[in-house]
Amino acid sequence: ATMREERIKKTKTVCTYCGVGCSFDVWTKDREILKIEPQEEAPANGISTCVKGKFGWDFVNSEERLTKPLIREGDEFREAEWEEALYLIEKKFKENRREKGPDSLAFISSSKCTNEESYLMQKLARGVIGTNNIDNCSRYCQSPATMGLWRTVGYGGDSGGIGDIAQAELVISVGSNTAESHPVLATRVKRAQKLHGQKVIVADLRENELAGRADLFVRPAPGSDLVWLSAVTKYIIDQGWDDKAFLRDHVNDVDEYMASLDKYTLEYASDVTGMTKEELIEIATSIHEAKTTSILWAMGITQHGGGSDASTAISNLLLVTGNYMKPGAGAYPLRGHNNVQGASDFGSMPDRFPGYQFVTDDDVRARFEENWGAEIPTEPGLNNHEMVEAIHEGNLEMLYLKGEDMGIVDSNINYVQSAFEKLKFFVVQDIFFSKTCQYADVVLPASPSLEKDGTFVNTERRFQRLYKVMDPLGESKPDWQIIQEIANRMGAGWDYSHPGEIMDEAASLTPLFAGVSYDRLEGYDSLQWPVAEDGTDTPLLFEKEFPLPEGKARLWPVEWTKPLEFEDQYDLHVNNGRILEHFHEGNMTYKSEAITGKTPEVFLEVSPQLAAERKLEDGTKVRLTSPYGSVKVSCIVTDRVFGKQLYLPMNTAGEGAINHLTSSHSDKDTDTPAYKEVSVKMEVLEPK
Ligand code: SF4
């Protein structure tokens, strides 16, 4: 081979853009990405990818990448050597811990980083600093789904794999923009519709792409899903269509639950949701007629004051109809970021160690203390939401945040940003100088996925390995190495030389992943948790029993929480979510020319009805104002939205950033922000 050919190599990686977890080979010549080549053997996607996975990688060579640590000086930042930056962090952390105690510090891990990095972040917080103040950004999206599943079936994960969704006779998608947020998964559904006549029902405020192809599309009023889900469940029971054998053998608390359904009549549900009785009956009948039903849901359900309860209602419906414990059936909360599942799986939570073991459990804590040689606090720490409050109250003074643009993606960002201003010391670790970095005292340059080894867990609980494609750019480093250096300066004495060693340690302490190892994840090999010590994994999460008392699931009564109410002047409801081309606040995709060439900015979707009433056209600039702030955006008129519904993609950090409008209101059980409960008034700035 010539020199030129030798420099060309291919490396397997896992996409960082969503929870589907597509894997593929990346062909590179030095730092140049030649092509993305999906492989038949890729477990989640085979030969498919979407536009982000296929083209969205040139950000790794962006001139805007952080390549050296930055230290604040007044209103400016100056470049610094690692030694100086790390010394400063050590000095500040030690001082505060000594003077104010370990709980004056807090740590936030990232659902974009690897499992090994989330594991180390919580080990740093708990085992080295001595605080359980550790969380990750799944608090912003999926914690309510996890809560709903813990309550009812015991494990917070998808019931089966993407293949199960494809083989279901009926798929119901609720509050999920599946085709844009989880494109390859949606492709599997579309193929199943064609190949075996899979029936699809979509419930959403917006006629998203999947809704356009659905057998039935319904538009329940904002935040009312719990009501129609419960009414459908009650109707099924009233018809005698509940799966009595399944309930007898596998479910507890049935009578108490049945009694709680009394008020969810078709009349009541129709009043609250605006759906017709015929629609409710059609959904119930479809579930009754299908041998297998899978329900997919996402942020349209979870990001509400009653997000955990609505998620619970979904699981209740599946239990009543016996749609667990068989291929093609079950609960599928669709995880957003590539490693939302893994960040929580690996213990970046204030109350749980890796594998969802409670920090309050003395035996569990003793096992970690012995292995780590550390004393771990006995009480749960603060979650993200509580951290912001604690900063405002003066009880939290230092924050170490990695891989998250919290100052843009948290709700009510004017409030969050003013909290950052109060911090005594703020360390932000990222690949770009995000909005949040503007508030930092030290900014540390990290490496994106292509520059490191590790593992992710996708939405179907599947562990997959990513291999290092290229060296870190400039002086940037993989997050796990940075965390290790900080820990060692705080006296830890860690000596991990490869993420595989971190995984070995985590697996040895966590029954849920006991048999996970890098050897078993070579190349395209993968494992779905729970993984037994001998390496047997669990494609179908529940086969014989549920991980709850007596091996039985639990029906869990829930009450509807009304969405936040706004004064009359805020007469338009703003729904928000993703668009296909961009990833989250856009820190990566807006640095990709391949992507911005197609979609340079986001637009506010307005309905034809509203356009006629307010004289809006494509391109009209408007200001939206909520009680919490305002944004300026350009309109696009589309019948995807209806009446007084607006849709503002969340994919911008600019003056259209949705979280200028959202409140601090949150799910009452998990503190997940109620991003979907926001109303605004509109002012037309300039017609085109
Ligand atoms: Fe990446 Fe998700 Fe697209 Fe797959 S579907 S290529 S994981 S963004």
TrEMBL record:
What biological processes does GO assign it?
formate metabolic process; respiratory electron transport chain
Write the protein's name: formate dehydrogenase
Q: Where is the 4Fe-4S Mo/W bis-MGD-type domain?
A: 8-64
Which reaction is catalysed here?
A: formate + NAD(+) = CO2 + NADH
Q: Tell me the keywords, alphabetical order.
A: 2Fe-2S, 4Fe-4S, Iron, Iron-sulfur, Metal-binding, Molybdenum, Oxidoreductase, Repeat
Q: Which GO terms describe its molecular function?
A: 2 iron, 2 sulfur cluster binding; 4 iron, 4 sulfur cluster binding; formate dehydrogenase (NAD+) activity; metal ion binding; molybdopterin cofactor binding; NADH dehydrogenase activity
**Coiled-coil annotated spans:** none
Family, per entry: In the C-terminal section; belongs to the prokaryotic molybdopterin-containing oxidoreductase family.
- Under Enzyme Commission nomenclature, its number is 1.17.1.9
Its Gene Ontology cellular component terms are: membrane
Q: In terms of the whole protein, what range is present? A: 250 to 937 of 983
Organism of origin: Salinicoccus sediminis
